[in-house]
Structures
1.
Amino acid sequence: MQPVSFSKVIITDNFWAPRIKTVSNVTIPVCVEQTEVKTPRIRNFEKVARKQGEKHEGIYYDDSDVYKALEAIAYSLKNHPDDKLEAKADEWIDKIAAAQQPDGYLNTYYTLRKFEGKWTDMEKHEDYNAGHLIEAAVAYYNTTGKRKLLDVAIRVADNIDSTFRLQNRHWVSGHEEIELALVKLYHATGQSKYLNLADWYLQQRGHGYGKGMIWDRKDMGVKYAQDDVPVKDQKQIEGHAVRAMYLYTGAADVGAAKSDAGYMTAMNNVWEDVVYRNMYITGGIGSSGSNEGFSVDYDLPNADAYCETCASVGMVLWNERMNLLTGNAKYIDVLERSLYNGALDGLSLSGDRFFYGNPLASSGNNSRSEWFGTACCPSNIARLVESLGNYIYASADNAVWVNLFIGSNTNIKLKQGNVKISQQTNYPWDGKIEIMVSPDTKSKFPLYVRIPGWAVNKPVPGNTYKYIDADNSEFTIKLNGKPVKYELNNGYAVVNNYWTSNDKITVDLPMPVRKIQAIDSVKANQGKVALQRGPLVYCVEQSAEINNPTDIVVSKNSVFTSAYRKDVLGGIVELKTNMRDNSVLTAIPYYSWANRGKSNMQVWLPLSK
């Protein structure tokens, strides 16, 4: 399977198209202003080019935020062409190129320190910065056809390759990212040395080469790195959540490109450990603030949940790769959960406020911020939303997969000819999806339509979460208005048909309000339930009717109604139920909380006995 590139997908969706527009019109300009005016990130590149002995400002990994912003801009230029924004990107690229050293090295922190300590501290993010540069360069080249930043990235990668791999010098990246970026560079250039360098990075882990580095200290009570055992031998998730996601995305990429079953087996084992025992109902990961990551199985506190926005972005990246490797829809189920809940919560409805961490409960002390000292999340959520088209469709020589239900259209080239695919839907508010299939000429091929686990009484893969209320509603699939024969295969309904122009598949996924309970091993949620409708997890936020959500008690027999309110929080489906005291309990989608200021909030609600 190969993903259909966002550049070939036009999103017309009523839910996502306005959000993409907001990111283009609001979020990216905020990132540009913060990067160029309010913080010294661009200024550091200018200092390097001037060669006047000026001091570095900011944090040693700040270069990466410039590159992530550029990547978001690259996607935005495809979605919403903007000559002024493209000129600004070109201006930044000129400054980045001017800061590159004759041997290809590029890092403003060390260059302004006259290279003192260069490539001596694995934690100092030199290759992490390089990875984000490579990702930005590939994205900008794919959108604009301009090679300047790509050529800079190639020289950076060549410098790393000659510094390490050819000399057989050991190095364990403190913050993974370079691995997945090098695979992108391999695909963009066709140069196998970049794939081999990515593999080399993976093979460095788990042999003791990183011992003694600050990020490998165990005195903080929890692990931080993913370096205890070689990657192919890893079975359990540990350490920093974002770093882990980038590592495993890179491992899946290398495993796919090299057809290496060792990486594939390891990724499946680690994935089960994450999803079965260490994932929040929102698709967020990373319960511990001390290491910004994982602690022990089933340790999933709510108010203290770290759940970094970047980690949820990483879950989207990793689960897409796992789906492409295996053809199993369960990975898209998790991707969707992280996308609509854990990741989307990190971006305000206005597009100019952000969450770094995403707790599942609040006593009114959480608010969205304009920016952060460590500013990885704003540009990360921006690049995810702008590149959303990457995750909707996939294809092979003679098959098409519909993974996400997002109003859109695309043209997919199959072995036997082109086929136009379009979707119309009001998802996630409504479960009706219409898929138009129009091949250039009549042809037979299988169409794989994902049937979400939440629609077949399995909210999340594994046994940690389950529905406690019975629902016998069944999904339906029709072709041109009539029932059609299909087979269920790895979470997909497979319709193998002779397709002609404007054939219409109609999928109807029931969206009752469901109550979810966690197993007793999740101590934080014992005796509590969470609410879900379709792919969305709901929460109760302080309001005029509800002073303190922690006082709410839900009955197992509580009946919730749902209704679309276009005047509330940008347009949402609200859930309501009558309480014993005749008050009305209102729940809103988790992603939308804290958009009206600080307030108390609960995802998990006490269940009456």
2.
Amino acid sequence: MTGRSNRSPRRRTVVAMFMVLAVIGAFVIRLVDIQVVNAKEHIAQSLELGLSGSQETYGSRGAIVDENGATLAGSIVLYDAQLDPKLVGPIDREINGEKVTVPWETISAEIGAVTGQSAEEIQGIVAAALAENPDSRYAMLTRGLTTAQYRELADMNIPYFAAFPHPARTYPDGAVGGNLVGFVGSDGTPLAGLEVSQNGCLASTDGEIRYQRGGDGVIIPGTMTEIPAVDGGTLQLTINRDLNWYLQQLIAEQTQNTGALSGAIFVVEVKTGAIRAAAEYPTVDPNAPTSVDESDRASRIFRNTFEPGSTFKALSAAMLVDSGTANPFSVVHVPFRQTFDNGASVRDDLQHPDYDYTLNGVLVNSSNVGISTFAGMMSDQARFDYLTRFGIGQGTDVDFLGEANGLVRDPSQWDNQTKYNTSYGQGLTTTIPELANAYQAIANGGLKLPLRLVESCTAADGTVTTPDNGEPAQVISPEAARQVTDMLENVATKGSVSEKVGIAGYRLALKTGTAEKVDPGAGTYKVGSYFTTIAGFAPADDPQYVVVVTLDEPSTIKSSSANAPAFREAMTQVLKTYRIMPSNSASPDLPTFG
């Protein structure tokens, strides 16, 4: 009897154990069924019941940097602050060891001292939210708080205050390169310049954190998954930030001193086609684009066209020499006014007796009659073809947002006057980049290189891509380019602005231009209004940089002499910036008269 009674409790223990294990096993099987076998079905059910949640994460928009990596545009974190109106009221604080109740009126004033709002304004925000919905749990306090402001508010330990971060755009150097960089809207949408055209490089991809919540709103451990955000790429430009800053100050001063409507300085590296500066005035600070007129928010350098005037005489000389039609020593008879066989009439700017000018003399003294006489020795089609090869009217490979093309009509549309006017830069239009590219070709032995503003895009994963630039084109022969350069040097040493543009130790090659402006409303030239230009390169014996300086309607000086001080200072700064060695030989002295 004793042995049987001992076995009975053990049997009951074993049975109980098996029952417990059976229950646990059932739970395990059910959990496997819920979390593994039929997980998708249950997740779907939780979504229907509102038990899943997500939170968006933000990638940073890529930076825009200059040739040396200096930041022109970058991303920062700002905070949007909100209040919970239902919880708004006095809060308890411990001051000097004593518990003190601080009223809402005081709290609202403390908040306003940080956000820049008045206590009444903040109280009004809360009151408006409660008036609309007495159970409101949300009222937007303000947007765009800095990290410092956010920390100051967070340290106040206000239970009904919350702030959420979001990326924002900043331009640390303000207006430096602003006409190129462009800007974004308050919602991050790119609106102008490279911010728009290079958005494929700069744009980030937002991510998301997904999770499951219990009925009490608490996130269920182990249910959190993340789709990571991807930052935008870094866009490297060819421009030099410091040089662009200097030239922006320079052209602003010269534009104001001459009473011009606007001005620009454009710098191109001869041997690469890289744009090293594109400075203009007026311009825009991308941090506050609405603070300037809409017409000042884009780049006039790329978007405006103009008649280039006598700067085109260099191109006419280049085609004459390259085609074998003339050389720097060729001579034509040049009266002050000339009526050609087709009835067209051309005159020079200043009264003078009849001269026998060399082609070099025509450039030095900028004779309209002389260059027209030489140009008449070539067919209209041949001249048109050369202009096309120089890129006039063709735009550039930069393909800047809104970039304009110059206009050169087909020779079949040239009237008797246009046949000659086009030789000295009237009756057609160009842009600053087109003109600079043509001078780059002359400076580079006749080889025109595609202009470049974007160096590369480096993606977040380190992948580097470079833009697909066009192919180089041999516009004129190296020998023709050398002869034209020699003549442009004579312009620099003997021309009307020679005493104003010289740089000690350096040989310069340049040409001036003073072009009449068309009145769009009247369809005729505006009386007394000119677009003035100086285009040139240095050192002439080993060309490194092209500089183009323009002024739109200068009023104190109405000729290209208005551009001379800025051209000299700009070229001097370019040569200093890139440590270009002085010339070690003298400029050639070609004859002016036959």
3.
Amino acid sequence: MKLANIRNFAIIAHIDHGKSTLADRIMEQTATVSKRQLSEQLLDSMEVEQAHGVTVKSRSVRNFYQADNGQEYEYNLIDTPGHVDFAYEVSKSLAASDGAILLVDATQGVQAQTVANLRLALKHNLTIIPVINKIDNAAADVAATEAQIRALRPEFADVTILKISAKTGENVHQVLEAIYQKIPAPQGKPDAPLKALIFDSQYDSYQGIIADVRLIDGTLKSQQKLQLMQGGSIFNAQAVGIFTPDMKPVKELNAGEVGYIVTGIKDIASVQVGDTLTTAENPTKNAIPHFKPAQSMVYAGFYPKGDTSYEALKQAISKLALNDSAFHYTPEQSEALDAGFRCGFLGIFHLQIIQERLRDEYHVEVLTTAPNATYHVYLKQPQPKQEYLTITNPAKFPDFSEIDYVTESYVKAVITTPNEYLGAVMKLCDQHFGEMVDLDNQQDLVTLTYKLPVSEIAYDFFNSLKSITHGFATLDTEFLDYELVDVVKIQIQINYAAVDALDIIVPRQKADLIAHKLVKKLKYTVPRRLYPMPVQAMVENKSIARVDVPPLRKNAAVNGEKRSISKKQQLLRRQSLNKRQAVKSDIKLPQSVFDAILNINEPD
């Protein structure tokens, strides 16, 4: 295909505005898939995507369109997620695109995530085609939606806004025409040395790492000797191909095109998203500017559960990390849960999706500890050549007597919400120690910029935001810096034995309230035994909250009767023995125990 007839584009939209349905119509009207093959949300093929009704993973598909001007065009559609936790996936897709379709639901109008994704697209200098969807719906307000779109950007004032129904296919043909008319062709040099961007990857047990690539210059052929400019690996291309949307091998990929390459590399750490691919014999001089790495916002521990072995979990996590470059992990050891991994996520929903993908795709069951933020701990007597300790696991938090001061990671949170929810959103931010930086009013939407500690948004902040705004607000976060905080570690003891996997770090002023809530919840989630077991919350070596987990059956020593002296002596002997054996706990904790920390703010 001639370079002038290639178009690379993405579709960006708020959740449920019809992005995946429009992708289906484009594939249908370009005969990329037959009606027999077509199903709803064809590109959302993962189980978690179908279960939650959201796009999680970006995917690409090549379409050939016979235009009204008599020419054939190659349309490379790169699908994008809509949820705020997957903004990094959106940015990767946009980096491989030259334009974007901005899709807005006529029944809901411009929503928060519409604005957030538009900002991402403009950062990549993409050409924007605004489109109004669901015009066939009885509740559609096309005129109001059009006015909202025009108010987003000055250049939208005079632009033609297409009005379609992705469900019925009405006017989708106009979108197909607008793509080649408005989105520019790729700017590449077919005769130059190979230069290709790796914008995604996945792992295959037989073929090794399969990388999604966008060619900038040159030609990519099977069996070429290639190298990665950042990673340094040299390998022979096993095969190259395109997505239709299934993988289809081809002889070669040319400048401007999007496809995949089978590397044959089995070392998962060798291929990184954002790397530049070139030939080993005649490499390009300048690498493509590297992606800014995804900044993990929350951390949690993953440990094998049930019949899952540590080795099986390790293999599954390493393969999943290749497929999701925003997911990070490092091995760790817990006294209570043995060997596992400390994992970094973009948010709580991202954590949930990773859990479900491990279960559904790799058949691995994991026990997940409570999420936490990152802290820099400065010691009274610092280690040589180490200014501070970076703490992502509360169990590693030093003893309070050794600490000079602590700083916590802060983010700039940009919240876009309809006007009527402004007061509720500001109240929510104040409750989570937020500091307002800016407020911008844009027609019916308000954009609030806050400085927030990561620990305050790690648990239920986004869910609370969705709840008070009925799902109409968006949260876009960007790492700022570390700032001084007054925090303490709550250590949980069960039957006098410390359980390091339950440790949490909280603001000092909240410690007493959280400790009492936590031990109360643990009373009903810790597995019972034949004798009562104390659950204590310790802060700086002092017990600030305690409950007793009731025994499986009544105990004469604790039921108020004074007649059974022998029973009471037996209980005292058991307590004495427990205290002597409290170095290591032999209690097997179910996931419900860790969920008690996650749901600490829910009513009892």
4.
Amino acid sequence: MNNKNPLKNRKKVAILLFFGTIFLLAVFAGRIAFIMVKGEVNGENLSQNLNNLYTRSSILEANRGTIYDVGGESVALDATSYSLVAVLTDEWSNPDEPQHVVDKKKTAELLEKFIPMSKKDILATLNQKNLSQVEFGEAGKNLSFDTKKSIEQENLSGIVFEETPTRLYPNGIFASHLVGYAALPSGGEEEASSTDLTGMMGIELAYDDLLKGTDGKTIYQKDSFGYVIPNSEVETTEPVNGDDIYLTIDKRMQVYMENVMSEIDEKYNSAMVTATLINPETGAIIATSQRPTFNGTTKVGIDQLWQNLLVENTFEPGSTMKIITLAAAVSEGVFDPNAYYQSGVKMIGKEPIHDHDPEGWGTISYLEGLARSSNVAFANLMEKMSPETWKEYMDAFGLGQTTNSGLANEAKGSIGFKYPLEQANTAFGQGLTVTAVQMLQAFTAIANDGQMMKPQYISKFIDSDTGEETIVEPEVVGEPITEEVAHQTLEYLKEVVYNENGTGVGYQIDGYEIAAKTGTAEIVNPETKQYYSGGTDYIYSVAAMAPADDPKVILYITVQQPEIKDGSTTGSGVVKEIYQPIMKRALEYLSLGEEEDAEINAVEMPKVTGTTKEEALKILEDTQLNVTVVGNGDTIVQQLPLPNKTTIENQRVVLMTNGAMTMPDMMGWSKNDVLKVSEITGLEFTFEGEGYVETQSLEPNANMHDADKITIGLETP
């Protein structure tokens, strides 16, 4: 019999439920109190999570420092490029607002106006199958903001743009291996800023830390609808822009040198060519060029040679080394210009040393031996000094040591000096290797009163945020000879140019005295490890200082293995073809004490670089100057004439923007006006005929980047 009372059982259940509920409430209350006190759940900070939920940040981009020439003209600067993309799939489109290319034929017709690509090729690109989107190769890359804006105004469905920070080198080929280039790391195009640009070569690499800026950041609070919370704290870290660098390079001299080098390179296709113009009083490099080279913006040619020949390439200098040997011999008092010796051949033990004419010229004076570049004469001088003394002079002139240029991979060369034959060979430039920058440094001692100046390519650094300048002062790195010895050496070197038997007779410049030494150096065949012989398998060179009585410039040129097909010239003749126009232009351009006559209707050129195109045109509106704008960008980055330079009314002013270089309409222009465009763009123009422009091979507004050669037809009115 069941005696249980149902009522009593229900009371027990109720009591249990009551106390169970109380217990659960106590647990919940304790947990909530714990969370309120600690602010954590399962180790996660709730306050931090809430803050993260409503906190937003944005990057304040810093600029990479700009590289300028000595006069303040941009050589390398930040830019934004745009790449054209066409969306082909309708997967993301809706019928009312299509996001893909709908009318391919119309799209091709309109895009042809803005990119260097034919309608047919554009249509073929758009008609590719099984692709969701397509690009347009090089024709669709590196577009300027103006070009992007113009395309957008056509309201073409499915046409979008990818934005990429890039580096612009507005002069094209312009001391390219020295300046170098900066680029985004491979695969770093998405979400990149200017601070992601990294130096890959030259100054861009050597001073990457200075040029590279640091991005800033803004941190602020937003509500769940995306609005900034009123009175909330905004934390801002300002960006730090990279420092600007001013080179010692003079743009006008550099562009002229590049044009000469391109012309000679096309004519002779030499294995390697270098030319450097330096101020011996300060060591400042005024212009420097090499072949092969490349275009800094397009990178065309960069695959030919990565090496900076100025500092990385070592070679036997040949007879230009005799400048240093002569200075040492004069210093030691063993060079008697009127003493005689037997030319032709000299035996060092059982080994002969030959003059370049093996028969020699009989018994001649040492001064004539210098003029004729006699190896025997200089081997004798080395013996008169003693090998030990001669080695001390080579060390004092910095041979076998780097110049501490700061550029990557600078070589120091080598000096073979163990055996008597090796010791004798070094006196006339064989059996040792040097770099071009080493030789230039050594030559400054002869041209600068005995003080040897470190070659420098930077004139100053500027903090782009504060404007604070850091000047790079000229640096004396040695005094291997006295002022008197330097002057006497220059006097003797004039014999090379003005003696009827001199090897440098072809290096005379009307109106100026030149001190110079030519050179022809043998090259080792890397396969046989023996010297090449015959043909043009040599390095031809000249080192010239002018004016001889007080040099303001040194021009050092080397030409390796030129291809001379018709026999109309020699290897030394190729060097002369580079030397003559460059040295003449340098002496004329630097004026060297000559004053120019002032024009009655003179106009001082205002500074318009850094302004917008519209602002620049407004500034120049009342100057009575004829203004031409090159490029389709929105900001002026180059100008010719330079700021504060004096020109005359009605003269042509050329302004270059930060966009793609576009060909102006040159009909009726003078040759000099065309050359201004060549100078400001760094592109080579070929002229046919005389007079004024009648034809141009590149149509107006066409992209000049893609033109291998631009031919201008001139006719006399």
